[in-house]
Amino acid sequence: MRLKGLNxxxxxxxxxxxxxxxSALAKFLCDCGYFVSGSDETRGEQTENLTxxxxxxxxxxxxxxxxxxxxxxxxxxxxxxxxxEELSMAQRLKKxxxxxxxxxxxxxxxxxxxxxxxxxxxxxxxxxxxAHALAYLNVPFTAHIGGEDSLLGNYYATGNEIFLTEACEYxxxxxxLHKDIAVLLNIDKDHMECYDGxxxxxxxxxxxxxxxxxxxxxxxxxxxxxxxxxxxxxxxxPFADYRAVDLRAVGERYSFxxxxxxxxxxxxxxxxxxxxxVYNALAAxxxxxxxxxxxxxIAKGLETFTAVKRRFExxxxxxxxxxxxxxxxxxxxxxxxxSTAKGIARKNLYVVFQPHTYSRTKLLLNEFCEVLRGIKNxxxxxxxxxxxxxxxxxxxxxxxxxxxxxxxxHNVYALKAWLKTTVREGDVVLFLGAGDIYFTAQxxxxxxx
Length: 449
Hints:
By secondary structure, the protein is of the alpha/beta class. The chain has helices spanning about 20-30, 45-50, 65-70, 85-90, 100-110, 125-135, 200-210, 220-225, 275-290, 295-305, 330-345, 360-365, 365-370, 395-405, 410-420, 435-449, and strands at about 10-15, 35-40, 55-60, 75, 95-100, 115-120, 140-150, 155, 160-165, 180-185, 215-220, 230-235, 240-250, 255-260, 265-275, 315-320, 320-325, 350-355, 375-380, 405-410, 430.
């Protein structure tokens, strides 16, 4: 299979190939018969998986790389600065350049049906749930997932009837995607550096939905409701087209009955933890049901989903205290995840939060403080800057000072000392953040034993 939009290219070079989204696209191109190579700063699970596929990958400092010179096309991520040595070299060599979203758009164009999942929170989980349902239904599909599903990984392919992907709002990238079915989970203030205010953000999501043949939006989200008359799903709103009713929970695992236009049609018993997953599952159900598939089989498929890595993932225990990691890095996500953790903690809940980027912390400082002040045993860990330079107004120390009644750790040794003197059997230690806190938590588990 050759992609029309790549203009007969055969050799493809990825800058930043180890990223979750980039590596999934690299795997797809490998399956299409392209010669794929690339580079990344460090080795990781995704780069190792690609190496097993025969992909040549360079690490660390840039230099003269044969594959880059021989490439017909070069793919780069938005996180790569324009000054990046390899990107600059590709420009000097007059290589055909595609951003990650350019390539994703080209891939979408090859499929007769595209199902895209958007929203400020929950995209990866909902996309994974869709993948499980389609797999159970034996639909020939290809999934591009922005995280690591515990069973399916970040890329799963059985055919080309449906392409399933996340639609990210960063730099309005979701508008570059062709989509037949659009899901919108929620709208919240995030990536605001890419928008001219909240109205611009909301309008971007409106346009995303309007461009699709069919769109499903959350009827319980005020901003989603404001963007127009689209098909809907929800729990609280009695007018939602697809509604979850008769909710019951055992150990934070929910079951519910699906009402389709007011008529109960099936019951779903989730194996994923947290009330937020009722919304994710209902959104996935709505989208796939619109394709005409059997409601009971969709429900069974959704029940096969258990977790995505870094989404309320238990990574181990220390002294009988469970260590759980979650990607939550936005106030609304933190509130939801902490609520779920409280529901399963038999004794004390300890929370370690790592802010992700200075700009987000500064923009949402009041919202962060409001949520974090409600956490009894809180440790704020040093900021993960991502692509940003240090900003005192948005740093973790400033956040900790403003929150008050919490601790601050600048390094892993301070975290280790705190946990060693506090946690006991029956406690839960919740590590929150989109940065390297996941790997820090894994390191701590080894060091504490």
